[in-house]
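Reopening this one. Same input as before:
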Amino acid sequence: MRVHEAVADALAELGADTVFGVVGSGNFHVTNALIAKGARYVAARHEGGAACMADAWARSTGRPGIVSVHQGPGVTNAMTGLTEAAKSRTPLVVLAADVSASAVQSNFRIDVAALATGIGATPARLHSPSLAIDDAVRAYLTAADERRTVVLALPLDIQAAECTWPAGGPTQPAAKALPEPSPQQVAALAQAIASAERPVFIAGRGARVADARQPLEYLADACGALLATSAAAKGLFKDNPWDLDVSGGFASPLAASLISEADLVVGWGCSLNMWTTRHGTLLGKTATVAQVDIDKAAIGAHRRIHVGVVGDVAETAAAVTAKLGRVPAASGWPDTGYRSAQLRDRIAREVRWRDVPYEDESDGQRIDPRTLSIALDDMLPAERTVAIDSGNFMGYPSMYLSVPDQNGFCFTQAYQSIGLGLASAIGVAIARPDRLTVAALGDGGALMGISELETAVRLGLPMVIVIYDDEAYGAEVHHFGPDGYPLDTVRFPPVDIAAIGAGFGCAAVTVRKVDDLGPVREWLEGSRDRPIVIDAKVTADHASWWLEEAFRGH
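Same output, byte for byte:
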């Protein structure tokens, strides 16, 4: 068999059943071989879109995503999406066609390994026909077991060569065992929790990956801790009466106050970076800070900590609970800890942003993004997945649109690039067809990634694509405008994005006030046989609250 066939066979046996990509001559055969093995192929309109789709698909399914790209420009076009995936520790295998070893003057020749290393991904390669199958298996298992984005270079000469399927199947290296938390570290964290009067747990991506809700809630019930998440794990504690929702810049006033007054903050699979802690201002000066992470290098990477535990979040929480020797009180608030009946009632009334009073700035021509988001939250079905692009607007859909659980929120902000949201939402929609996918974009990011609207229409995806249109790169307007800098480079004339969406074949509506949302309700009640684009002309007199917090932090 040819190597490209053998690689496809090996990946298919390991579970690769969905492939995103843009096909050129270099990846034509391996992509078709995967399709022949039963994989679904999703053709994007740009390699960057394909990378984002595969990234979001992997986040939603928990399995390695597969993206297939042409040599040279196919690889470089995908780089921004792959950087986001690598920084997010998304398990992803990039089938990156590469020139033959002898093609030293090829215009497609680039250093694929250097590019992968430069963005924090793991470089891999088919080294020879006889080793190609094992190389492919190793790449997939590295992505799966170590949660890495692996860029697998596929030289054309090796792809075309003959090889033999190994007797007994490919060699599969043993999966790396998860590090067990040491008894000393467990005891130190248990002691810190036992001594705390106002503990707060902040769960991050590591807690989401470890499916650690139950052991974290049990430990929190035993010690009276309040619960919060990083943005990447939003929804993990949905409907828990002690859930403060997202910590950091997105936190509501009550949540921020409670976290900042904690005498112990424990980050569970959470990096406690500047965004999750508001540049450290949410960590009290006398608070004990603890961190649990499977990656030793992550402990203390962003700030000084007092207690560090290297281990899986779920296993560590269970071990700490056993060491603590407590069981949850029947009332839900033990004699020690932060909890009380009065605080529980305040959280129920005040912790959601939609329950925080505000002055509606809608004027009939532009709609307040808070008013828009609340109206959509009430209108859209509860079973949804919200995918967010980056920009000044993003706090509104992130915090005003509720999600059913930790799998209902796709937050691709590790690289903070605009333009990734639409393609990410398409990946989510393919991964979770049982839920309505909501893509929340700014006008800048929407127009940057607009080509993938054709993909959404071609696939007949029933998506809601809401665009917070302030006719600008809003973050830059609000960052530099107050200091009197000229803003011509970051402001744009009005664009009829609804007409553009209709041109691609979407249902579309322009929204300037709540009453304009009627067609959205009609779409929801109809066949949903194509996406709907909501071009929301939003007010933009000042920065969003989270961006103002970020500016103060700087």
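So the earlier flakiness isn't reproducible anymore. For the record, The CA atoms of residues 125 and 153 lie 5 Å apart.
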